[in-house]
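new request in #modeling-help
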Amino acid sequence: MHFDISALVKALPSLFIGASVTIRITAFSIAIGLIIGLMIGLARVWPNAFFRAIAGAYIELIRGTPLLVQIFIVYFGLPAFGLNLDPFIAGMIAMGINSGAYIGEIVRGGIESIARGQMEAARSLGMTWWQAMQFVVLPQALVRILPALGNEFIALLKDSSLVSTIAIAELTRTGQIIISRTFKSFELWTGVALFYFVMTYAISRIIKYSEKSSVNLNQVRQSIGMIFQSFNLFPHMTALSNITLALQRVKKIPKDESEKVAFRFLEKVGLEEKAQYFPLQLSGGQQQRVAIARALAMNPRVMMFDEPTSALDPETVNDVLDVMKELAREGMTMVVVTHEMGFAREVADRVVYIDDGRVIEDGSPDDVFHNPKNPRLRDFLSKVINV
Amino acid sequence: MKTMRFAIVLGAVLLLAMTSVSFASTLDDIKTRGKIVIGTDATYPPMEFHDENNIIVGFDIDLGRALAEVLGVQAEFIDTAWDGIFPALDAKKFDIIMSSTSITEDRLKSKDMSDPYYKTSQAIAVRKDNDSIKGPNDLNGKIVAVQISTTGDFATSAIEGVKEIRRFDTTDKAYIEVMNGRADAVVNDFSEVAYRMKLLTDMKVAAIFNEGQDNYGVTMRKDEKDLLAAINEALKKLKDSGKYDEIHGKWFPKVEK
């Protein structure tokens, strides 16, 4: 096998020009596709069934026929109706019409991914359906579909090689022309593939980069334990599985080892004998203790508690508070939002009193509970009997 | 939404602007424009191909320019894939085709073609180590590679017993098929095959047949009588003035048969 690199090097200037045509026709097509796709996507969720049907038919028709045939219809077929387009315009329109169907589906998916409550809230303020869509739903949906649009751009860039059949001198056709003179097919097709790859790889890096922030967020969350007011255990899993799930799926710890870890923390919250129980078979206090074990098992650097005892039967509150006190003694950093003043005074190193969204007292438990400067806090403490 | 309404209007205006509906005859159009638009599949050396600087050159190109000069207009060449070149002519993508197009009875049914301006034969090209093919009848039981809808394709189809005809959109793919050993022979116009053999040193011309039966003509849409007459007259002028021989000498220094 002989790879004639000089043949490829000689062809590079022409391939660059071809690649620029490929980029240009793809960019124009995407622009057309976005306009059509936005209209089709909106029509797909429009209250009027007639528009929905038209848009649905458009999508089915375009997705059900090959792009190559669509290009031929626009270029060779339309002149029969007096519409004679030059190759670049014809290719661009055919590709735009084609990607419009796919982008339409992406837009519809984006709109449907926005919580129904958003539309209801906007309508409840007296907005029309269109106003609600325009000002509330669409702005959120469009941000969400950016990665999918990037993928469509990559797909269309590759499919643009089909317009070489109507002799647009884009990248593929340029390769073909040079091979028809030099017969260096292996070298040229490899070079053409490389050009496509560089372009698509660049686009996919840009997409990845725009998604990066959410990936980091997942890593950050691993080191923060979160305890909810309403426990939020997974009801279809046993107490044990609730704990081992993230260990196995996120931390990739093997099954046996993850169960050992889970039992250690169940023991710590005093529930090792309830390992095989489902959440609904447990009391509120027990559920909250499983939730604490679940968070602890991930070995967090800090734990957050959002009113951990507010939803509990008074009798079981102390079981949960005892577990939290023990954690505090062991030196776990905890941020707790609570109405349990006695607990706060006993366990906290620092107490912040918040009223009406503002910090009005911040200090050691002694200062805050025994020597409050703020009259509002003084008034509050006097009403809380158990302090 | 205003922007959307704007987009629709813009789209409609663009479509209209790009539409060119002509009612006058093609010759009138050419004169008014000051330009004749010529379709060619520039993958066919030495008749029409891209040179090293990616510029379209060749015998047909020079002849087309000379024709335009006689008509008193500029020549513009549009590179077009061969397998779409006749539909593109019908779709008025250009005024005429100059692309080594042989005059055939079938083509004359749907197109008008000028008087012949170049005469050639069919050639069979094989690998150098292949001595089993000495003439068209030896293609019996063989796999033949051709460019689709060329006289090479038609001539091969007329030979009895050919095992398979592989039809490609460009001729170079047919040669590569033979060089890779997946087909036994290429059948194509001698004008093109002879030129190719200079580069493809592993191949040779094994036989020539249908000698002098391929006559290239300028192709145009049917019933453009004034255009046909003008082109024929211009061709005659070029032959009389010696310009034709000059162009011929430039592209066929020795190989011409």
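bot summary: The mean pLDDT of chain A is 90.
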